Amino acid sequence: MSVTIGIVGATGAVGQELIKLLLDRMFPANHIQLFASSRSAGKTISVGQHSWEVVEAVPEAFENIDLAIFSAGGSTSLALAKEAVARNCIVIDNSSAFRMDADVPLVVPEVNPDAVDNHKGIVANPNCSTAVALMGLYPLHKEFGLKRFFASTYQAVSGSGAAAMIELENQVKSWSEKKPLECNVYPHPIAFNLIPHVDTFNENGYTREELKMLNESSKIMNLPNLKASTTCVRVPVFRSHSIAINAEFEKPVDIEVARKSIEAFPGCELVDMPEKNLYPMPLDFSEKEKCGVGRLRKDLALDNGLSFWVVGDQLWKGAALNAIQIFELMQKKGLI
Ligand code: A2P
Description:
Layout: E1 5-8, H1 13-24, E2 32-36, E3 44-47, E4 50-53, E5 55-56, E6 67-70, H2 74-86, E7 90-93, E8 122-124, H3 128-144, E9 146-155, H4 162-176, H5 208-220, E10 227-234, E11 241-249, H6 255-264, E12 268-270, H7 282-285, E13 291-298, E14 305-312, H8 316-332
Parallel strand pairs: 1-2, 1-6, 2-5, 6-7, 7-8, 9-10, 12-13
Antiparallel strand pairs: 3-4, 9-11, 11-14, 13-14
Helix pairs in contact: 1-8, 3-5, 3-6, 3-8
């Protein structure tokens, strides 16, 4: 059966990657339909020799779509995902709107592929930092049994969308021309700066992004008693998130076993030769399917602890690629 895929948010940073990844996988261009807001309706998007007209995402637009991948923010997903499902369209949602709903599977295909079996129309794609962190955490959990972790993220501006990439570029130009830096997306300059503030603050002092890492990791790995404390930081990097993790496990950690479990895991690649200056970095892991894991060492402050560093293209593994892998998994399972 040939499937028609709708991309909602096709003009955005993740939408553009979805188009490229589908074409790279030889998905037929005439089975892709592009949706965005009324602002973009009628625009043409071209990739290679293919062109599509962007259509406004309204409920009726999903009549002939088999599967829609939403990357247009939580409010668009809340307004339209159930409308699409009511029209027999399966939704893979990149926003946080449904991730913690008990009825909605939250899926990373390398970790919990069977969770899709019970979907009721919507399958959620995890938060970008969570998906990247799990590429290191999950194989180690399988080996040693994860109890808790501490993490600090170094998140690229493309995680805030296309406008944030333009903001960083413009600020770098203004800086070099000694002009004032204009801030529209972030509350402070991001060029040559770090902003310890990703998403909105909760009453407990953590941001929503920081709590997503705990709640989503716990749901995806089915570890209801997992504990985690994270600090999420926006950094002046265009693409690929990096995460420093200190994890504590049930069993004693053996570094060689840890390395082997990372090497054997399909979602990641071990890059860990510090003596040769080799460790994962955002420039090396942009537009790469696998995430990089390195800097493995025994944690000096935790019992059975391991410190490590994970880097991954959050537009891919944290969004577009994981969504497409969910689609491919559903196809393999005969769910679509
Ligand atoms: P548009 O370009 O028409 O505003 P990014 O994450 O890069 O900021 O992109 C956000 C994406 O979400 C864009 O494609 C944007 O389309 C789309 N979008 C925003 N609001 C809506 C909406 N109400 N309906 C459909 N798409 C939307």
